Amino acid sequence: MTALEPSTTPGSSAPGGLVKSVVELDRVVIRLAGDSGDGMQLTGNRFTSETASFGNDLSTLPNFPAEIRAPTGTLPGVSSFQLHFADHDIMTPGDAPDVLVAMNPAALKANLADLPGGGLVIADSDEFTPRNLAKVGYATNPLEDGSLDGWQVVAVPLTGMTLEALKDTGLGKKEAERSKNMFTLGLLSWMYHRPTEGTVRFLERQFRRKPEIAAANIAAFRAGYNYGETTEAFAVSYEIKPAPMAPGRYRNISGNQALALGLVAAGQRAGLPVFLGAYPITPASDILHELSRHKSFGVRTFQAEDEIAGIGSALGASFGGALGVTTTSGPGVSLKSEALGLAVMTELPLVVVDVQRGGPSTGLPTKTEQSDLLQAMFGRNGEAPLPVIAPRSPGDCFDAALEAARIALKYRTPVMLLSDGYLANGAEPWAVPAVEDLPDLTVDFATEPNGAAADGTPEFLPYLRDPQTLARPWAVPGTAGMQHRIGGLEKADKSGNISYDPANHDLMTRLRQAKVDGIAADIPPTDVDDPDGDARVAVIGWGSTYGPIGAACRRIRRSGRKVAQIHLRHVNPMPADLGEVLGRYDRVVCPEMNLGQLALLLRARYLVDVQSHTQVRGLPFRAAELAAVVQDVIDSTTPTASTGGTQ
Amino acid sequence: MTTSPHVHDLGMPGTPIDANIQQAIADSVATQGEKQTALKARDMKTDQEVRWCPGCGDYVILNAVQSFLPSLGIAREDMVIVSGIGCSSRFPYYMNTYGMHSIHGRAPAIATGLAASRPDLSVWVVTGDGDALSIGGNHLIHALRRNVNMTILLFNNRIYGLTKGQYSPTSEVGKVTKSTPMGSLDHPFNPVSLAIGADATFVGRAMDSDRKGLTEVLRQAAEHEGTALVEIYQNCNIFNDGAFDLLKDPSTGPMWTIPLVHGQPLVFGPDGASCVVRDDFGGLRIAETNQVDASEIVVHDATREDPSYAFALSRLSSQDLRYTPMGVFRAVRKPTYDRMMADQLEEARTGSTGDLGALLAGNDTWTVSA
């Protein structure tokens, strides 16, 4: 919903004597929907950039089909981009749009059900041809047959006006038509008072080798803006004031971008070359793309022949002293499992990024899910523990990547970083950190023997652990006198030689577990948001549900109820105080985009009767729905003796 | 650190970010003295008990490699041996170098990451016919086409030894084993043909028991810049004993072995009775030397850019090993992957400030003032 009580201010006088009013809103959710060839993602990203530079808080939800170009004008080919922006800080891309821009009948049909009654539909009337209507099963034109009476509909000949605006450019009809997304962006930029210079600069940069295309897009963009200013179809424009944010320098950033930059920063702060071994996979490929552009920071990217070679090469590079990284999504993790076991056994630093998507198998490649948690925890043969870290927002992917690298380097272990499709493609304003404030990840390579043979000659013991961290020394090839052999066979304690000794295997298995468990002492206590400190019900989440859960908690608190939000960044090991924290609450609700994987872990670890609330729709939770679920729990929680008794 | 007078590029990677690795190496030299390059075979041995079956061909290869490696003048610290799974893959444990005994089939991938990020190292892969051609076939062909600087030793015993005797991807058709009591059905790979088909820049073949021939092929492979594949026929005396006797037996070996010597005519057999000539379809065939004109006999040229000739050579042999060329099939120069990767990094660095703060900020920022 838009602001409850919009305040109308007298507007400026537009050319032609038209008086337009300006309505002030506190937030808006816009969904742009069109054919996958219509450039909706680009349009959405541009609107996002304009909105970010204007200073609103924002959150985005791109939603596109796995097919690159499904048949034009069909329902499977619909691609959409939802943007929520506000004059205050927000946590989600919005439960439902206030405004739906439909570039064709398919886009309208696929998205109308999400638009609450009274919402605004802006439709390209030129695309509502009998042929296009028939493709999606409309018997009559919904723009004319009254079926949209419950909504405000503005039918605009976007295509025709774009062609008209470009008629003198010499571009063919087909090419000129492709600029209709920029015409639409221009119109929206006028409607919401967005700054336009950034988009003009972007188009000039994007098409610098095709100046005529740049000029056409800019002309269409300006024509759309001017159309808004002059047309009678839109009598109102909207103002959403900048959101108060902490002072600092900001940029707009997507999760995959932030994650990639976090890895570059980790390499720089560790003083190590970053080596990425990766095989392209949706929705993780953009990390490979981004990192491949940063060779000047000593980042080596290797597009491997398969997922296994991706992790194998990264592990090989780690053996050589690099920060080895491999990026993938769930199906790729399945393929990497054996090599992950090798990384656990060889105790080398390695960051494994899983940008989760809908599963199982190929599943829903472009949709989001959190269903790889148990795979990350247990998806290997043998007792093969490894730390698991999950970012909570697109910008947080940066910090999570640094944290994953920190733990990998300090504890000499593979670390699983669980992002997801929603974080990967979603974007938000991000406070650009100062380099000197980033953690120092310097590592010490082993350069001299740490033990002595029976005859007293110094020797290097590759599995002689640091008593504090239980990490083994990292001696890279090339280091004089430190030759040693590692591998997947069980290693003898300290010497690292092959050992089939039962007691040694028992010891080593427990040591590997203790090393990972011990990281709990090196991470912050549980992150609890319980404003009054006396909530009886807590909602616990991990990863990208942070935003929707947070938004739900705000709603609940606005209704006068009390609720605590607990969020886990470190999923393995969990914070040392988590059991005690959970014990403070009468009820614990755990919403997840899977069938209850964290809930299973919490129940097993802490014997807490966690109430699991799950959904696997390929989309983030809606805050209102979550709030309703949690409110029911709060309202059905009776006072317990400990909190309600008077004795 | 010392710079060793050998063929491998031991210049440290030039990126400033690799400085910490360079520093660690310098520190180790400062405390433990210069790396030694004047080594003997015994310097290559470890204190680990070698645990192959008595009589295994792997012992012979291990001895040959330990004797040969010192002649390269590379310090042990600058060598890394990566292996997969199988009998041969225990090799690293017995070599006093850096090593990784990894997982089944993946050694070329692991070695690729190591070699691509550390061009200063001499990287070796030890693998077997099952490891390299069955479970790891994909990694092998991609390593070969990429031409990363490493040397792959493929011990081919034409059987699965460590799992106790199933047929392998190089076993002859009809092989009766535990898993194929009525004989195997699948056609075997010829590893040399496969490698040449993948455009490998160096492909050689040697016999475990032929110390001289093996050493010569190893030397050329080690000196080659790029990925070198050496197929080593290796006898498994437990599960496939005598697999190469046709070539080893002095009474039959010379008849069926075609020694490959660069620049020499391909004449072989007792008294040079047989030779290799071109056939009518662009391939090669065996002929009797006294039946052809000397000018028709093919003169071996391992440096031919077009792999067709080397491939044709590899097709002369049959599954039962008659007419098996031994030696270096192909040795051509092409840019190596690791060098090109280093060059791209270097190119990216010129003209870039390498300013992390600027990278994090990107092109589009706005400032919120207090």
Automatic annotation (TrEMBL), chain A:
Keyword Oxidoreductase found: yes
Keywords: Oxidoreductase
InterPro entries linked to this entry: 2-oxoacid/accept_OxRdtase_asu, Pyruvate:ferred/Flavod_OxRd, Pyrv/ketoisovalerate_OxRed_cat, Pyrv_Fd/Flavodoxin_OxRdtase_N, Pyrv_flavodox_OxRed_cen, THDP-binding, Transketo_C/PFOR_II
Origin superkingdom: Bacteria
PANTHER family: 2-OXOGLUTARATE OXIDOREDUCTASE SUBUNIT KORA (PTHR32154:SF20), PYRUVATE-FLAVODOXIN OXIDOREDUCTASE-RELATED (PTHR32154)
Domain Pyruvate flavodoxin/ferredoxin oxidoreductase pyrimidine binding: 270-495
Organism encoding this protein: Geodermatophilus tzadiensis
Protein name: 2-oxoglutarate ferredoxin oxidoreductase subunit alpha
Any Pfam family hit: POR
Any one Gene Ontology molecular-function term assigned to this protein's record: magnesium ion binding
Keyword Ribonucleoprotein included in the entry's annotation: no
Residues of the Pyruvate/ketoisovalerate oxidoreductase catalytic domain: 37-226
Residue ranges crossing the lipid bilayer per the database entry: none
Any Gene Ontology biological process: response to oxidative stress
UniProtKB/TrEMBL annotation, chain B:
CDD domains given in the database record: TPP_OGFOR (cd03375)
Keywords: Oxidoreductase
InterPro entries: 2-oxoacid:Fd_oxidoreductase, THDP-binding, TPP_enzyme_TPP-bd
Keyword Oxidoreductase carried by entry: yes
Keyword hit for Signal: no
Coiled-coil region: none
Domain named Thiamine pyrophosphate enzyme TPP-binding: residues: 85-232
Pfam families found in the cross-reference section: TPP_enzyme_C
Domain of life, source organism: Bacteria
GO molecular function, one term: oxidoreductase activity, acting on the aldehyde or oxo group of donors, iron-sulfur protein as acceptor
GO biological process: cellular respiration
Record protein name field: 2-oxoglutarate ferredoxin oxidoreductase subunit beta
Source organism of the structure: Geodermatophilus tzadiensis
